[in-house]
Amino acid sequence: MPDTYPPSNLAAIDAAHHLHPFSDMKKLNADGARIIQCGEGVYIFDDRGRKYLDGFAGLWCVNIGYGRREIAEAVARQMNELPYYNTFFGTTSTPTSLLAQKVTSHAGARFNHIFFTGSGSEANDTWFRMARVYWSAVGKPSKKIVIARKNGYHGSTVAGASLGGMKYMHEQGDLPIPGIVHIGQPYWYGEGGDLTPEEFGLKVARELEAKIDELGEENVAAFVAEPVQGAAGVIIPPETYWPEIDRICKARDILLVTDEVICGFGRLGAWFGHQHFGVEPDLAPIAKGLSSGYLPIGGVLVSDKIADVLINEVGEFNHGFTYSGHPVCAAAALENLRIIEAEGLVERVRDDIGRYFGKAWAALADHDLVGEAVSIGLMGGLQLAAEKSTRTRYEKPDQVGALVRDHALANGLVLRATGDRMLASPPLVISHAEVDEMARITKLALDAAWKELKC
Ligand code: PMP
Predict the structure, then answer these.
(1) Which helix (H) or strand (E) holds 416?
(2) Cα–Cα distance, 187 to 48 (Å, whole number)
(3) Rounded CA separation 91/50 (Å)
(4) Does ligand 1 lie within 6 Å of residue 226's CB atom?
(5) Atom 7 of ligand 1 has which residue's CA nearest to it?
(6) Ligand 1 site-directed mutation target among 63, 153, 295, 379, most atoms within 8 Å of CB
(7) Measured distance CA(445)–CA(77) in Å, rounded
(8) 71-342: same fold as 34-64+344-454?
(9) pLDDT by residue for the chain (455 residues), tens digit each?
(10) What Pfam families does the entry give (predicted)?
């Protein structure tokens, strides 16, 4: 239970002064924002003491759960010692360099360097520039175009939102910027038609090859994709997809970028999503689970192939942020990674809780309202369907998803809805009993929504 309370008019203050991201502000101001007061383990509590199981880990990020005093203590120590210093002018700080070493130690032999940023969006903007700088430095300056995917998500900055393939984002602010093109996504349920998932996986992967041919390999810098699409609705590609993408990137002279902002740090039961799928990216933006969201920090894992050119050919990469490698954020991240290692959380997802969650989640596929229930590690997607056998969708997908989400919330579970898909991504420390509770409330919410939809 929270021991401090906000002023009684906080919702009114918020409505008067705070513009929220990705929110219908008129509606939010009328309803009043929910005030989240504190958290412990997988639970969050609002200002009225109501308890919710956070099935979404904040925003895919609170991997170690809420209320870890070790992080608060590490942060306090670093705050007292050195609250800030930059990494621009020949300087570093202890947690920053140690974090660079620690993160890369989990990223496989090809990755020995990281470029720090403040967020996942900044990480995407960073590799976008880095890839172009790389190709210029190796004498191929025409290689500038980046191929990304429809319905991908790579952040909200100008390059991030352009790399993303969200139409509703492109519509605001004249995006994408030139030099970014999009191919199809491996969303079999929605777009696979009569093909098997395996056939469809190959078909959409080969759109990459066709797009490279159309644009000319000499003009293409990179291909970027999330190992598993998150914001699009936890879209897990068919098994044939990633091996074919990896093959095409290697056969053609283009960089592969896996956006690990969600999939990194154990979510799929491997340190990074590309390891789970056995592919070999050249660059990998990260954030979220790096600090479990306790403080804002992100970065780009840079493979030796690129780092060697940056260091030995480019020399000075004219790019960086005031908060690149922020010492307090780095101290939080370092302690977070210590906890993930000490508690074996990545292995726990792979060998135990991911499987347990997978079974409980898959059982939801029996529900009349569910077209498919898929999961990987501790990431789950539920496709809502009007008619299961024909994969027929509801006419107003946003309304169906919101209905299920609201019923879940009313019963004490936070789930996210993206259109007619429900998204789950609980903290990696979730117990078996808490997974059972998640599944029970999700079923309750589906029952309640189904009843309303049939009325
Ligand atoms: N990439 C992916 C795959 C993401 O899911 C997100 C955030 N949800 C981002 C990038 C952007 O990260 P941030 O919100 O920290 O800028």
Answers:
(1) strand 416-418
(2) 40
(3) 46
(4) yes
(5) 155
(6) 153
(7) 44
(8) no
(9) 445 668 889 999 999 999 999 999 999 999 999 999 999 999 999 999 999 999 999 999 999 999 999 999 999 999 999 999 999 999 999 999 999 999 999 999 999 999 999 999 999 999 999 999 999 999 999 999 999 999 999 999 999 999 999 999 999 999 999 999 999 999 999 999 999 999 999 999 999 999 999 999 999 999 999 999 999 999 999 999 999 999 999 999 999 999 999 999 999 999 999 999 999 999 999 999 999 999 999 999 999 999 999 999 999 999 999 999 999 999 999 999 999 999 999 999 999 999 999 999 999 999 999 999 999 999 999 999 999 889 999 999 999 999 999 999 999 999 999 999 999 999 999 999 999 999 999 999 999 999 999 87
(10) Aminotran_3 (PF00202)
Domain range summary for the chain, segments of one domain joined by +: 34-64+344-454, 71-342
- Measure the CA–CA gap between 417 and 380, rounded to whole angstroms: 12
**Separation CA 294–CA 68 (nearest Å):** 9
Residue with tokens 């997988």: 42
Protein residue with its CA nearest to atom 13 in ligand 1? 120
- Between the CA of 452 and the centroid of ligand 1 the distance, in Å, is 34
Give the ipTM of the model, two decimals please. Answer: 0.99
Ligand 1 atom with the shortest distance to the CA of 287: 15
The highest-level CATH class for domain 34-64+344-454 is alpha beta
With CA atoms as reference, report the closest residue to 22 among 298, 262, 286, 231.
231
E strands of 251-406, at which residues? 255-258, 283-286, 298-303, 370-376, 379-384
C-alpha span between 113 and 105 (Å, rounded): 10
Compute CA 320 distance to the chain's CA centroid, rounded to the nearest angstrom: 22
- Return the beta strands (E) in 36-144 as ranges: 36-40, 43-46, 51-54, 111-117
Backbone angles phi, psi at 421, to 5 degrees: -120, 135
Distance 113 CA to ligand 1 centre (A): 21
Burial class (CB in 10 A: 0-12, 13-18, 19+), 415: buried
Distance CA(303)–CA(305), nearest Å, equals: 5
Is the Cβ atom of 118 under 6 angstroms away from ligand 1? no
Question: 409 is written with which tokens?
Answer: 């919330």
Structure tokens, 435: 């997974």
324 CA to centre of own chain: 20
**Domain 71-342: which topology?**
Aspartate Aminotransferase; domain 2 (3.40.640)
The single-letter code of the amino acid at 429 is V
Question: Are β-strands 220-225 and 379-384 bridged in parallel, bridged antiparallel, or unpaired?
Answer: unpaired
